[in-house]
Amino acid sequence: MGSVIGSAMKENMKEQIEVQASMQRNMMERQIKLQLMLRDRQVAMQLARGREMFNWYATFALVVSGACIGGFRKTKNPAVFAPLLPISFVTAYQWDMCYNGKMNRIRAGAEKIMADEQDLIGIPAGPPSVRKIDEELRKTI
């Protein structure tokens, strides 16, 4: 009689362990999906912010360009065009970042680093572990 109850308990325990493992896998998959969704939203917000900044900066560059042209007409001195050089570089960079695929080039570069140069992106002193965290907590007590 005892062995029947013991075997039924063992079988029930095995089923419970399998159910728990399945639930943990399901929870982990959901957490990963949530993290990816949050990351996508953050990247979208950063890109939208960059585009908004580009609009403002491009407007500023146009105003400065008009002022430089007006200054040249008045003074006939080509030095008044000097501010246009750095402003045009920054405006072109921002346009490239927001509208011309610089993000794709950055992503491709990051993927290449992750594939070919793993030693450059390691965490100093290794990833934290539960043991290390507990040791740090004990130091503060």
Structure report:
With 141 residues, the chain is mainly α. The chain has one domain (2-100). The protein has 4 helices and no strands. The chain has helices at 2-75, 84-99, 102-116, 130-140. The chain is elongated, with a radius of gyration of 30 Å.
Quick rundown:
The chain is mainly alpha-helical and 141 residues long.
Backbone shape: elongated
What characterizes the major β-sheet?
A: none
Distance between the termini: 53 Å
Note the run of SSEs as H and E. Answer: HHHH
Percent range for β-strand residues: under 5%
- Total DSSP helices: 4
Which labels suit this protein?
141 residues, mainly alpha
Blueprint (SSEs and pairs):
Blueprint: H1 2-75, H2 84-99, H3 102-116, H4 130-140
Helix pairs in contact: 1-2
